[in-house]
Q: What sequence folds into this?
């Protein structure tokens, strides 16, 4: 009786080098020797596969290597990994499509390959992973839990997932986490100082109003009060009273979502050369899928509910053809909105 393909001792490894590289860069605030971390992950992964009796006959790494500060192609070559240089875009990791094409080519031209390993985590890989499994191939996914789509992880199963943290030495992980903690503390302190400055500005303005009320006709007798910093001006033509009561945002994902939303407003305004009072909800949720691929859809939707409940946004219905649609309106008087607004916002 012929053996199943999944019983084969041979594996093919497909590494979305760009995905791992930029996750480390963004999540751990641009640590030094970025390439070394990714190379360590690849090296340890191949060693662990070998320990399981899997020979990595094929190994490909994908990235727009020309955009990276240092080129890792030489080190990858010495490890037996072939590189695929793909031109990147500002909107999507261009490695995705080439990786999927190569995986399918290996599937149909190398029946001796029984295991496919993807060092990646975008939800866009779900269809090709499902296809590989339907062809009786074993499929493993490796990556940082924060960067792996919740939808993909749910689809593949936790037992087929290899956490990239386990592919780095404990000391290396401690260095990364310490750097992240220190940078997060600095960012949080800066945010608190900005919020205190805004609150102090409102307090000074209120005090000036009280002094003026006590002496409405005697301008010369009024003490000179320093001008308060001008808060960010609302983009809307009038104040909107129906935001939820203001409360601070609590979670990192809430702040990341709000910051991303404000950047999308800014990009849209730069494109249209005018103030934009609202953002279409449907297209924004599709963009948020790429911004927070590590979360499943229902958690991304819940983030919008949390932003609404904190008073940072509201969601309105609009009549349209052929169907009504929803839009996001931002509360620009909310302290978190003012603190997270991109530079240049007024």
A:
């Amino acid at each position: 009786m012929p053996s199943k393909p999944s019983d084969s001792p041979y594996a093919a490894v497909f590494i979305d080098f760009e995905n791992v590289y930029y996750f480390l860069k963004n999540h751990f605030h641009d640590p030094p020797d970025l390439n070394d971390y990714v190379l360590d992950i690849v090296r340890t992964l191949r060693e662990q596969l070998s320990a399981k009796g899997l020979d990595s006959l094929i190994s490909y790494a994908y990235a727009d290597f020309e955009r990276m500060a240092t080129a890792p192609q030489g080190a990858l070559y010495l490890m037996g990994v072939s590189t695929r240089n793909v031109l990147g875009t500002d909107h999507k990791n261009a490695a995705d499509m080439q990786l999927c094409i190569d995986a399918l080519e290996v599937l149909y031209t190398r029946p001796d390959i029984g295991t496919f390993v993807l060092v990646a985590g975008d939800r866009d890989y779900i269809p090709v992973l499902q296809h590989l499994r339907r062809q009786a191939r074993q499929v493993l996914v490796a990556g940082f839990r924060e960067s792996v789509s919740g939808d993909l992880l749910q689809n593949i199963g936790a037992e087929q997932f290899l956490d990239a943290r386990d592919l780095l030495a404990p000391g290396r992980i401690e260095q990364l986490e310490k750097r992240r903690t220190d940078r997060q503390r600095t960012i949080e302190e800066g945010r608190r100082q900005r919020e205190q400055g805004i609150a102090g500005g409102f307090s000074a303005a209120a005090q000036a109003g009280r002094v003026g009320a006590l002496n409405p006709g005697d301008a010369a007798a009024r003490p000179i009060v320093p001008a308060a910093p001008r808060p960010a001006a609302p983009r809307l033509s009038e104040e909107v009273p129906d935001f939820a009561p203001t409360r601070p945002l609590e979670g990192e994902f809430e702040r990341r979502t709000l910051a991303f939303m404000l950047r999308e407003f800014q990009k849209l305004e730069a494109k249209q050369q005018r103030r934009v009072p609202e953002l279409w909800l449907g297209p924004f949720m599709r963009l948020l899928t790429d911004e927070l691929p590590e979360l499943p859809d229902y958690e991304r939707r819940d983030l919008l509910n949390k932003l609404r409940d904190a008073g940072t946004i509201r969601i309105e219905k609009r009549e349209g053809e052929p169907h009504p649609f929803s839009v996001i309106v931002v509360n620009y008087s909310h302290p978190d909105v003012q603190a997270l607004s991109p530079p240049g916002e007024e």
Observations:
- Residues 315 and 328 are 5 Å apart (CA to CA).
- Residues 211-240 have pLDDT under 50 and may be disordered.
